[in-house]
Amino acid sequence: MGNQTVLQMNHIMKIYGNGVVANEDVSLELRKGEIHAMLGENGAGKSTLMKVLFGLEAPDQGEIILKGQPTTIKSPQDAISKGIGMVHQHFMLVPSLTVAENIILGVAPKKGLFIDMDKAVKAAEDIAKEYNFDIDVRQKVEEIPVGIKQKVEILKALYRGAEILILDEPTNGLDPIGIQDLRQMIQEFPQKGITVIVSSHILSEVSQVAADIGIIADGVLGYQGEMPHEEKLESLFMEIAGAGRKE
């Protein structure tokens, strides 16, 4: 499974209107069932690269190859249709709706002109069971804790067929138990053939879950390869981040 390349982002350039170079000639390759980390300080360019992949930003140069075919990702809806899902740092859930309603929002089973709630609840329960998420899908989102909200966001992406799952700063707002729970959850995704990108500025967050890593600073990918041990990773990160700040 790990030898099958599912995504290549080649020579991506993104320059904003104010002249800020967010991504400069960045290339990324992902294999099926891989957990890949993108590590960088806030403002380093990692979130922009993820937004390009999810269709929230259009690259100024470069190409995206998905499952061997060049592709253009024009919008998040386009990304979702191509099997790419993203869980944002700030959740995109509707608090007044139930877990089930959020999961099936926009792709709900219908009974005539109306949502078939029985089917919606069953669909939400089935996807939660498939990924071993213990969630009451009838509960309103405004009533559940942050860690469960994140699981709902992940289930939303998986329900829509995500084969590549982007997690942007995934431990934001989680307590230690929630972080441990998330780490275990991420490590189980490769068994389902899901490729995961963890985008973070926290070294310990990525070193314990990912096999491969890219370190980005000042829009430039300073390192990409196998995850080094934590002491080496810290030294490498400080070196690349420091070089970026000096430029």
Give descriptors for this structure:
247 residues; alpha/beta; 6-stranded mixed beta sheet; 4-stranded antiparallel beta sheet; 8 helices; 28% strand
Entry summary:
The strands form 3 sheets. The chain has a 6-stranded mixed sheet, sandwiched between helices. The protein has a 4-stranded antiparallel sheet with strand order 2-1-4-5, covered by helices on one side. It has a two-stranded antiparallel ribbon with strand order 7-8. Helix content is 34%, strand content 28%. With 247 residues, the chain is α/β, with parallel strands linked by helices.
How would you sum up this structure, described in words?
The mean pLDDT is about 90. The chain is built from eight helices and twelve strands. The radius of gyration is 18 Å and the shape is globular. The N and C termini lie far apart (about 40 Å). About 35% of the residues lie in helices and about 30% in strands. The strands form three sheets. A six-stranded mixed sheet has the order 6-9-10-3-11-12, with helices on both faces. A four-stranded antiparallel sheet has the order 2-1-4-5, covered by helices on one side. It is an alpha/beta fold and about 250 residues long. Helix 6 links the parallel strand 9 and strand 10.
Low-confidence stretches: none
What is the N-to-C succession of helices and strands? EEEHEEHEHEEHHEHEHEEH
Question: Could you give the count of β-strands?
Answer: 12
Strands of the largest sheet, in order across it?
6-9-10-3-11-12
> Whole-Å distance between the termini?
40 Å
Q: What is the count of helical runs? A: 8
User: What characteristic shape results from the CA principal axes?
Assistant: globular
Q: How large a portion of the residues is in β-strands, by DSSP E?
A: 25-35%
Q: Provide mean pLDDT, rounded.
A: 91
Q: What does the largest sheet look like? A: 6 strands, mixed
